[in-house]
Amino acid sequence: MEAISIFDMLKIGVGPSSSHTLGPWRAAEKWISELQEKVAFVNIVEIKVYIYGSLSLTGKGHATDYALMLGLSGQDPEYIPIENIHRIILRIQEEQQIEFDGKFTLPFNPDKHIIFKKEFLPFHANGMTFEATLFDGKKLKTTYYSIGGGFVIKKERKNAKKNIEIFNSFPFPIANGVQLLEFCKTEKKSISEIVLENERSLRTDKEIDHELHRIWDTMLDCMYTGCNTEGFLPGGLNVRRRAFEIHEKLKEDNPYKTPQEWLSAIRNTTVKFRQILQWVSCFALAVNEVNASLGRVVTAPTNGSAGVIPAVLMYYLVIEDHKADFEEIKKFLLVAGEIGSIFKKGATISAAMGGCQAEIGVSSAMAAGALTELLGGTAEQVLMAAEIAMEHHLGLTCDPIKGLVQIPCIERNSMGAIKAINAAELALNSNPEEAKVPLDKVVNTMWETAKDMNSKYKETSKGGLAVDVSLTDC
Q1: How far apart are CA 210 and CA 212, in angstroms?
Q2: pTM score above 0.70
Q3: Cβ(404)–Cβ(237) under 8 Å?
Q4: Which residues have CB under 8 Å from 273's CB, separation 6+?
Q5: Model confidence pLDDT, tens digit, residues 10-31
């Protein structure tokens, strides 16, 4: 069984897609590391990348080619200044060369050295093959698969044995919801406490808190940026940023200059009952508008669904508990990460494999469960909330217009956030012993639904809104 940390489920990266942008970026980094072990870079005269399946069909809209160029240039998605992205890409396009790993120059024409192949590789819908040609004409090829949420693997999982050993070394090895509840019962601990103990087997408390602070700071900055940026999104659909306008209508005259001051200002804002849904939607829209603009977000568990969890967490901070601090944020993220890992182990978090139920559905389940614990719910109610949230996303397709993570993706985050809050309330007002559908059953059902779903509804832009809505309609 796979050992998955909450920091695997909540990654910092650049938009617009975890599987189509962050995954290829990380794959390029992995390939460079492997090449360094096999051959001296001075012997390389040419590099090419072949991308397949869903990666190819929606690659342009998802900035897959940009991600590959940035990864091959040695840039890090967690730390690259966002304002540098277009400058680096433009330089490669104009000069027709790339600074390979930031160390030496190779000829590189994006139109010729990144090859989009429509066929699907049998192992996974998101395949890519990297090819290096050496001075003596020899070619070195390696194929990777971006399996969702920024996870990248090879068909032959060389680290699988090590991963199982790590999993078995956890004080509480969890494969599914039943096991998680059993540990909570026998140890008399909450879900967040159980998850924290597992994380402590991987890193120190100081490291855990540091990374959680980074994740929350990125989420907050993302919402702040989205709420304070107006205009239109890139890509040709002429989608207007709506978070700015909604925020302008909702905010009061409380001054702020930083994301933290902005959070304080909102917590001091008088929120009318009808405005609660507007605020939640505003937060979710803000994140995914930043994501659509190649901004920095937290995959939660993916980029396309990055707005749900921060929006629901903000709901708790600005509506439910104005005194909440980092400890509540920490608990929320610990629970959310664990629920996400259960879905990844038992099903998928890749839209290319399971449709949008695997992204928005999973993120909504993660947020619902996390909110339930913060609102005083039992471990059983936490998993019940996660189940309810997913149950009402089953069958959700992934059909982005023009392959962009904009329509219907951005609005779906606001819907997923609202459903998460509703699911938490339903669970808190229910007896889990009377629940008809346990979490593990809905995880399995989601996977079976994913396998039955027509491939044109799995992030290919070959079905649904992607073909029924023309660009002139937009």
Answers
A1: 6
A2: yes
A3: yes
A4: none
A5: 999 999 999 999 999 999 999 9
